[in-house]
Known about the structure:
The structure is a homotetramer. By secondary structure, chain A is an alpha/beta fold. Helix content of chain A is 39%, strand content 17%. Chain A has helices spanning 23-26, 44-57, 82-102, 114-122, 124-137, 150-158, 191-204, 229-244; strands at 3-11, 32-36, 60-64, 109-110, 142-145, 162-167, 206-208, 214-216, 221-224, 247-249. The longest helix of chain A is centred in the middle third of the chain and has 21 residues, at 82-102. The B-C interface holds B 14-20, 43, 70-73 and C 14-20, 43, 70-73.
Amino acid sequence: MSLRVDLNCDCGEGYGGWRLGADEEILLLVSSANVACGFHAGDPGTMRRTVALAIGAGVAIGAHPGLPDRLGFGRRALTVTPEEAYDMVLYQVGALDVFARAAGTALRHVKPHGALYTMAAKDEALAGALVAATRAAGKDLKFVGMAGTAVERAAAGLGVDFAAEVFADRTVLADGALTPRSHPDAFVSDAAEAADRVVTMVRDGRVRAITGEWVSVRADTVCLHGDNPEAVAFARVLRERLEAAGVAIAPLRSLAL
Amino acid sequence: MSLRVDLNCDCGEGYGGWRLGADEEILLLVSSANVACGFHAGDPGTMRRTVALAIGAGVAIGAHPGLPDRLGFGRRALTVTPEEAYDMVLYQVGALDVFARAAGTALRHVKPHGALYTMAAKDEALAGALVAATRAAGKDLKFVGMAGTAVERAAAGLGVDFAAEVFADRTVLADGALTPRSHPDAFVSDAAEAADRVVTMVRDGRVRAITGEWVSVRADTVCLHGDNPEAVAFARVLRERLEAAGVAIAPLRSLAL
Amino acid sequence: MSLRVDLNCDCGEGYGGWRLGADEEILLLVSSANVACGFHAGDPGTMRRTVALAIGAGVAIGAHPGLPDRLGFGRRALTVTPEEAYDMVLYQVGALDVFARAAGTALRHVKPHGALYTMAAKDEALAGALVAATRAAGKDLKFVGMAGTAVERAAAGLGVDFAAEVFADRTVLADGALTPRSHPDAFVSDAAEAADRVVTMVRDGRVRAITGEWVSVRADTVCLHGDNPEAVAFARVLRERLEAAGVAIAPLRSLAL
Amino acid sequence: MSLRVDLNCDCGEGYGGWRLGADEEILLLVSSANVACGFHAGDPGTMRRTVALAIGAGVAIGAHPGLPDRLGFGRRALTVTPEEAYDMVLYQVGALDVFARAAGTALRHVKPHGALYTMAAKDEALAGALVAATRAAGKDLKFVGMAGTAVERAAAGLGVDFAAEVFADRTVLADGALTPRSHPDAFVSDAAEAADRVVTMVRDGRVRAITGEWVSVRADTVCLHGDNPEAVAFARVLRERLEAAGVAIAPLRSLAL
């Protein structure tokens, strides 16, 4: 059986005249784009242009909804009810969806941004709300999140196709959780090493924890960053080594395939 | 041939904890609801609840996109390019559309709000942008605006079904334009008189100007207000007298009918 | 020694065309006004008009800074760093201060709003940031908060005059904390009973907990609400009974007095 | 008599995590900084840091209030009443003022941003509102604008010290107005030529129009840009040549000097 993995990156994260990220470059290296929807970043014009850019690069397009906090870039936890979370995600996915449809394509996935992503991983009710909003927005939409967390359980419960995300530049603890950013070994800064780790994850379904143990892992999609030149260079090396190792880079498969 | 007209009202124009308008009452009197989409008013939760309210009241649902100016309630002119206008309207219609779809229904029309409505009536490029966004959002969406203005021409040019709106509580000049609000006779405060005027517009296709001349008018839909108890009482009388005069109140017809 | 207490209320909490609260009525019943500063509610025009209203009513004016979350009215916890909290409070107090100065008066106190108020009570670093911002904004500004919490300690540590706030319509637990809103006996709905409780707090420095124990309490200022007609009626009865009991209602005293 | 001129630049125009402009570099080349106040750009944290940066660079600090339109960076005309303009400028100046005071300094001037600047130059009522807000915010604040426009007249009428601004990189028409940006000769791209023009303006009080005529001009302060490396290089050359020509670069003088 052939090996494959999706590479995803966040994009369209400017706001008005403020730019962020090297979207043009990183979109040429990934297979899926998570487009900001106007709450933590992005705006109608940026969304339209980013969708066009993603189509031009031949990548699958997904929604990247966030908390309504531009000042904090959606990275600050905000206490929202499941109902509020459902509403804000549905609104954002709908807003991006119409730009995709107007451009002749369709959204493929939803990946929450920042604090919404991490909050939902730990909160069953919030996870349920996000997955339910995804299902309400389109029955073929996949939900992207961390395996083994509340969002995977919610997706299973609601019958939504779940894509397990891993982070190329992050290490994990013995229980599979990400090593906290404050830890000196939290990051994998060498692209070649990161690529080797991803190849192992995709081929063998496991990764070595910082404490040495092998940890089972499911890697449907790998999160890349495009917010600076180094990140783009990292992504380039990662992509090249994955391909050299026989891992095809392609968008998330539909359940039907 | 039977007489019919649509009655429309703006609704869902609160924001978070701030309320505005007697939506529950006015929605029982109209046949179409223009739902605010989060830019001049409205927010994801309010949109979901307003869509549910409109469905419960059995009225057709349309989008009511506005300028990004909550502080000015979308009533202050903002110089936007046609491209910016296209993007902001498409975004808002898409955001409301997904709530309608999630509730098992579909949007029927788009009616711009406040300054966007009046700016587009006079600006061919802006009108074209708004109509193009409406068409991009859904091929069956009607565009609601004032007959004889740039928006009607844009709709004709782009092949979008146009619904001509009249105002029950406003008088017109000899050229058919609304009498400026500063004029002492700008408003029709008596509901019975307003109803008689609307009956004449629907039945005879004309209305008497404040200077006495008869002016040709097309009245597909009548704009009502629900922002205070008097406005609701006015709407109630108007509806009763229209029905007594044999004018059926029903949503805008599809072109196919 | 004569008995006295300050009555304070939040005001200026509309936004643009959206109104909230019966400011005109409640300001005639209190001695201090906490004016919203544009983040959770309020806007420049509302701030100017509310300052004028407060001056006309002869009440002391304070700033009521909140989290940058209009949609949630500043009531949703947002994870902010102490530095972010310092900056947002200083900004808001400065913005209101200039309206007070332009109107010929000066701010007297700062009382954080909603989630910022409750978060700071439990978080020493956040409390320190809020009190430091208050001190930076003006050396004579008092800080209003709950006695025995982190904000009182921060005020003591930074040499800022602290005013202890009690809630006329809330009961307390045996440890002096507010009874959670979910508890059936959390609220005191009878104004006469509330007044008796306040008189006891001011005169005897104690209040009876819902479990029967007497709890020591310091009551420099009593929080009233003006968000509905019942709240205003409640405030009116409270004020009358306090005065009848010989408790003078007056703004917070300066340390120098 | 010695020649002198002020060089000013806009700064602090990022928002949250979005950066804009090379503030650190340009502040070393100018004598006055116009700090964004949170409406078109800037936020509380950015304001505090920008004030500190300006103090470190030894430049005078002024407020740079804009229209409430982050998406359009305050460059889109918004129809506001004079009262709304007064309120929004006073709010913003007050918010920046408290950061200046907290850092031990004081604001020296107010220069409106973008569309607010150009709208006020042509609208007497709006100009009056902006100047009145400046006076209300502080009696020693200077107002920076284009000579010969409504703002200069408003400043004269209200007794506010006016500083005439010229643009180093723009040409003028025979009537002294800026050559429209659409004109091929609107810009002076050569820094040496720009410097020569400024020296002539400061020394001789005149400048040559694109049509050849000499136009009288008053140049109290020269607007520089710091939004890209070329702009900073331009500013560096300009500054060096002004100094070489014996023109001292110093903040705006108080009237009393």
